[in-house]
């Protein structure tokens, strides 16, 4: 497979690149900083230099041309202002999905966030609420598109070593999950038709990643 990952220098994306490349797939990490090329290359991928906050849909579609899977794993980051939560977590996600449609890349996986269903209970002016609103808007945009989409909402992310033991379901409740295990699930979702058209939550559990994917 040829897989294009938006946010290719992110912590999950680099882990995902290593897994996919190690399995013999071609991986392209879409990044905006040329200094990140060495890290993506070390993980086994190549880079496409593009800023999703500035690019137009044709430029993104050109990068996606010929891909089998598009994965949106970009994010403005915890230290970003409210404006970038909208331009990246919503706007860039929508642009990437539109470009997938234009390039004919049907399989599209988007990393969402736990908590988007609790927005009404939160302070509307708080930064995390604004982030969740952006993530929810990106999900809503994706669901309306003619793509074979999946949204994956991981729990609280940790840098602990992967366990290969997860709970992957439509609803899991709150919990933690390692970035290693998120990457492993994303890699598997690329070739899991049962996940198409579903919004899935992911936390640590008792089931192997392979069995969790088979059980969808």
Automatic annotation (TrEMBL):
InterPro entries: NAD(P)-bd_dom, NAD(P)-bd_dom_sf. This is Uncharacterized protein YbjT (DUF2867 family). SUPFAM superfamilies: NAD(P)-binding Rossmann-fold domains. It holds the Pfam family NAD_binding_10. Residues 7-192 form the NAD(P)-binding domain.
